[in-house]
Amino acid sequence: MTQQPPPPGPGFGPPPPHYAPGPPPYAAPQQPPYAQAPQQQPYAQAPQQQAYAQAPPQPAADGPDFLAVDKRNAVVVDASGVAFESSGLSIEFRWPEIRSVHYQASPNGKALMVAVIHRDGRFFECVVEAKPRTRLQEWFPQLAWVLGHYRPAG
């Protein structure tokens, strides 16, 4: 007489109704699908993730900002730091990594040149065309005021 293996432990589906010689008939487990199991919740309903999805992160601080933009380039100065965009490529500098920010008119007087000196000595520059040319004279006091707000002299 051959001996049958012991029935599987709890959690492996219902036990066969009886033990007879020969292989037991195959029966699919009768467990509900995982998504319907009461002890598990879908990831999207997890409390910590749901709170994050509903409340997007806010900027660290509100404050003045400066924006100079032309067809290809842009300079943004705000509470987070300075950002340059040049022909579709962007680079951002946070205030803690900036040693200094400099600006001036281009030699022909048609553009604003802004430079960021990184704490490690690297130098980055962005040039934004001022059209009409009088816009350049509007940008200078605005940029000076915003930079003075975030990086006061002294």
What percent of the residues sit in helical stretches (DSSP H or I)? 10-25%
SSE sequence, one letter per element: HEEEEEEEH
The CATH topology of the domain at 66-150 is what?
Answer: PH-domain like
Beta-strand content: 25-35%
Coarse structural class: alpha+beta
The helix tally amounts to 2
Characterize the main sheet. Answer: 4 strands, antiparallel
Shape: elongated
List its traits:
single chain; 154 residues; alpha+beta; PH-domain like; four-stranded antiparallel sheet; 2 helices; 29% strand; elongated
Helix and strand arrangement:
Blueprint: H1 47-54, E1 66-69, E2 73-78, E3 81-86, E4 89-94, E5 98-105, E6 111-118, E7 123-129, H2 134-150
Antiparallel strand pairs: 1-2, 2-3, 3-4, 5-6, 6-7
Q: What this model shows, in words?
A:
The protein has 154 residues and is an alpha+beta fold. The chain has a domain at 66-150: PH-domain like (Roll). It is built from 2 helices and 7 strands, in the order αβββββββα. The chain has helices at residues 47-54, 134-150, and strands at residues 66-69, 73-78, 81-86, 89-94, 98-105, 111-118, 123-129. The strands form 2 sheets. The protein has a 4-stranded antiparallel sheet. A 3-stranded antiparallel sheet has the order 5-6-7. The chain starts with 46 loop residues before the first helix and ends with a helix.
